[in-house]
Design goal:
It is a single chain. The chain has twelve helices and eleven strands. It is an alpha/beta fold. The longest helix has 27 residues, at about 235-260.
Length: about 325
């Protein structure tokens, strides 16, 4: 008999919450039958939505609170607003071993701070890292840190390499982790002293969990020759926002070109299958679900602007992480 996985869900975070959260749970439950959803939020808003859905009542519990973290709250204000909010209670559920993992589409800064206030760090890890999935020509890559730490030491970056490799193996068990450091060039002499020191130390590490491939430039992340890309939070966040902006620009320009003239419309009809594949490849909903690594319990951040399909995909990320024992993988690999 399969062990039931309990996901603590902050139902009040992100755009169009709690509607998209409940819609996402309904979609996820259609393909995942061994999941229990512990839903935190305003009963007055959530119960009418659930009654319209086909969500099996034996697979969820609704924990009522009218308080929530607002999108405009600073991390300090959010922590101060705190202990009765849906986000805090969801994280506390994991802290008290009532849930296996927590997910929120709410305020990112608040989630990081409240998670760090409630959950312990894994032993020998100094800083948590925010990681995400990134499409490539050969599948999917893990990229971290995406903004949790502006400044990092060589030890932090090595820890990120180990944690990112463990995450990759949890999400894609058949993959061999190939790690690279994001840098301004691929040559050993490029970069600042910290990243060059990290390069030297990773070169000397013998680890069965990953293969170190050296430096990688931003223009080669999507080649797929490496699948774990490591950076400090400043660099990683800039790379992420640049990639998101480029993807949005390409899709909007392509749509304009295909609909602005008769020839464009005819061409789009002829190429409809290829256009669908292209659109799917760049659909951010498929990669939704950033993971905060380094804490002794898993914390997932769904994009605040995603829809219910994106939220359902982030619930699938939760499911894989728990089933494939991400935290235990990290603990075994970290020194």
């Amino acid at each position: 008999m399969k062990k039931m996985i309990t996901i603590a869900v902050d139902a009040m975070g992100g755009d169009n919450a709690p509607q998209k959260i409940i819609d996402g749970i309904e979609l996820h439950q259609k393909k995942s039958k061994d999941i229990f959803y512990k839903i935190f939020g305003d009963r007055n808003l959530i119960e009418p939505l659930i009654k319209k859905k086909s969500i099996d009542s034996s697979f969820f519990e609704l924990v009522h609170t009218e308080e929530k973290i607002k999108s405009e709250d600073s991390a300090f204000t959010a922590a101060k607003r705190g202990k009765k909010t849906s986000m805090w209670l969801a994280i506390e559920s994991v802290k008290n071993n009532l849930s296996d993992i927590v997910i929120s589409a709410g305020n990112t800064g608040a989630l990081l701070v409240i998670a760090k206030l409630n959950l312990k760090m894994i032993e020998n890890i100094d800083k948590p890292a925010l990681s995400g999935l990134w499409p490539s020509k050969k599948g999917m890559s893990v990229v971290l840190d995406l903004g949790a730490n502006i400044e990092c030491s060589d030890k932090n970056l090595i820890d990120f390499a180990i944690m990112g490799s463990s995450l990759l193996k949890s999400l894609f068990p058949e993959e061999k982790a190939k790690v690279a450091l994001l840098n301004i060039g691929s040559e050993e002499v490029k970069g600042n002293e910290i990243i060059k020191e990290t390069y030297q130390k990773l070169n000397q590490i013998v680890n069965e969990e990953f293969e170190f491939k050296g430096f990688i430039e931003g223009s080669h992340i999507m080649d797929g020759n490496v699948n774990v890309v490591v950076a400090d939070g400043f660099t990683g966040n800039v790379a992420l926002k640049t990639a998101e902006g480029t993807a949005n620009f390409i899709t909007s320009e392509l749509k304009e070109a295909m609909t602005s003239s008769i020839l464009g419309k005819i061409g789009s009809i002829i190429s409809i299958n290829n256009l669908k594949k292209f659109k799917k490849k760049l659909d951010p909903r498929l990669y939704n679900g950033a993971i905060l690594l380094g804490l002794d319990s898993p914390v997932i951040k769904s994009h605040g602007g995603t829809d219910f399909i994106g939220f359902a995909n982030s619930l699938s990320v939760c499911e894989k992480i728990v089933k494939n024992n991400l935290i235990d993988k990290i603990k075994r690999s970290i020194n």
